[in-house]
Design goal:
The chain is α/β, with parallel strands linked by helices. Helix content is 34%, strand content 10%. It has 15 helices and eleven strands. It has a five-stranded mixed sheet, with helices on one face. α7 runs parallel beside α8.
Length: 385
């Protein structure tokens, strides 16, 4: 029995030994477990991949200042719309029920590389001393596109993680939170800008170290926790599965949402992801397969098949402000029905400049039973109300 599963069993035993209610934890669903027993039944009988919850895409993103946006519109008359969205502070998102977050990173081991965005100078805008000070510190920074779309509700990776960790410790019963990351290493798109640094294996070593500097081992669900004694992560996921909901509450999964070159750099010579913090977006037949990003509406059949097989999947309800501008819920509804455990959106609340479009679970629920894996097990009772 793995560490996480062992902890769950001990917690469940303590709960049921001290409870004055006789709960039938072998009942077929949460309702039949007995009055007041639904949460205990869910913690014991559901697993991490049996849930459905929602979160935000590019959770750090703050709308680019209008003077810079005007410059972008001049050279990208259509693409600018994909940048025209805004998220509030991470703490508010978590309070509002977001259980999936996305943080895009740039590598800045010496500090200061991204402290003076070229877009400010091009737009004739002054620098913010607080921004310069934060971005001058060594370590990973959180931003979308250097020089032109760089405004964030938290600037340093460690700073973002600290906000999230502190919230979690104050709310230890939250369902497991997925944090996905893009690791950006592109050339600057602005005259006089700076290029992003490559994400080598050493850079990824530093990334793992920053995560472990904020979160304790017991707050993380890592590939090693899932793989256990199985030869590969994939075999563990398909043959044994994920920890129970009770063992997953208050914990985090981190996932590298990148293409093959980045995944290869992160894995190095490992067979799966031994010793690493992050799960990786990789094809289903990879020894490192456990988590998969499938963001397109056309991916729905694949999502459903992968979820049935045992993988954890993240998808999107909307993208590039398209659905919000047309108030089209087709993609959102398909995502929520697909079986993907984590569904991200830019619109947990409507942007009334565009439409009334928003993406939330029905009846204000934060987390519910997965429609593909556990459709009848919760009988309509939210996992996290």
């Amino acid at each position: 029995m793995g560490l996480i599963r062992g902890a769950a069993a001990a917690m469940a035993a303590g709960l049921f030994a001290t409870s004055a209610i006789a709960c039938d934890l072998h009942a077929p669903d949460a309702v039949k477990a007995g009055k007041g027993c639904a949460q205990a039944w869910m913690d014991r009988n559901l697993h991490l991949n049996d849930l459905l919850t929602m979160g935000t895409h590019n959770s750090y993103h703050v709308r680019t200042p209008e003077k810079i946006m005007a410059l972008i519109r001049g050279v990208a008359p259509r693409a600018w719309q994909g940048l025209d969205y805004n998220h509030g502070p991470l703490l508010g998102q978590l309070d509002d029920g977001a259980r999936a977050l996305e943080l895009d990173l740039v590598y800045d081991p010496k500090g200061g590389r991204f402290a003076h965005p070229a877009g400010l100078k091009l737009a004739g805008l002054p620098e913010d001393p607080a921004y310069v000070a934060a971005m001058s510190k060594p370590g990973f920074k959180v931003l979308h596109i250097q020089d032109i779309d760089f405004t964030s509700n938290c600037l340093t990776f460690v700073g973002c993680l600290t906000i999230i960790r502190d919230w979690s410790r104050a709310h230890p019963r939250h369902t497991p939170i997925l944090i996905t990351m893009n690791t950006n290493d592109e050339k600057s798109r602005a005259p006089g800008g700076v290029d992003e640094l490559p994400f080598t294996e050493a850079a990824y070593d530093a990334l793992d170290a920053e995560i472990r500097s904020v979160f304790s081992a017991k707050e993380l669900i890592t590939p090693d926790d899932i793989q256990g004694r199985y030869p590969t992560l994939r075999e563990a996921v398909l043959q044994h599965g994920w920890p129970t909901l009770g063992a997953s509450r208050g914990r985090f999964l981190f996932a590298l949402d990148e293409e093959a070159p980045h995944v290869t750099a992160y894995r190095g010579a490992r067979k799966s992801l031994e010793g690493r913090v992050l799960f990786v977006n990789t094809p289903e037949d990879s020894p490192a397969a456990g988590y998969i990003t499938l963001n397109e509406r056309s991916d729905v059949p694949r999502i459903t098949a992968d979820v049935k097989a045992g993988f954890v999947v993240r998808t999107r309800a909307d993208a590039d402000t398209v659905e919000a501008r047309s108030n089209d819920v087709t993609r959102r509804d398909a995502a929520l029905a697909s079986g993907a455990q984590y569904v991200s959106t830019d619109y947990r609340h409507p942007d009334t400049r565009l439409s009334d479009y928003q993406a939330r679970l029905p009846n204000g629920a934060i987390t519910v039973c997965n429609p593909v894996r556990a459709a009848d097990k919760c009988a309509g009772i939210p996992i996290e109300p």
